[in-house]
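Entry:
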Amino acid sequence: MTITSLTDAELNELSESFESRPASEVVEWAVANFGGELCLTTSLTDAVLVDVALSVDPGVEVVFIDTGFHFPETMDILDEVKRRYSPNLRVLRSAKPLDDLWRRDTDACCAVRKVAQLDAALEGKQAWMSGLRRADAPNRANTPIIQRDRRGLVKVNPLAAWSDEDVARYIDAHDVPVNPLVDRGFPSIGCWPCTAPAGAEATDGREGRWQGLEKTECGLHL
């Protein structure tokens, strides 16, 4: 199968057909149809998607974007994932030296350190998987399980329909690595300059990101 052989209507139909199916079956479909032209991305708030995907195919390429501004805890989780899964891991970093662009223009900083690196990771790919969930935030409430991204690639979100409780149950059942910052009030973890603990009354799982700004996404998932 190629991306050009799947119409948007067919992608929508596939997405709907997976609504009540296990995430592992979504991954199986992606692996069967795209093989080596498939990868998954992870920000390592937890390793749930990594665990699900590698239980289906241990050879799936795992992409981690190292912005240079990650919390030490995130890099520790990356090391734990390496030890636990021995993944087919690809780490991408910008060649641009670290600077304080994030102080002046967070969109430009994300474009250089995140979006450009994802674009590089997806060169030669037909599809990619992400850990996006509808429960993450209101602006993600309509996330489909399968969609077409802005590049024309197939984007697969195996965990889209999972609730926070589903994630917690899976973590407990499979002893999945979790970033310790989650237990310190960080439900969503990005770069340290732009990530703060969510408030005690927060209902939006991404409330701690880019506090004081209208920005809600770094650009990876637009």
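Residues 3-194 form a domain with the Rossmann fold fold (CATH 3.40.50.620).
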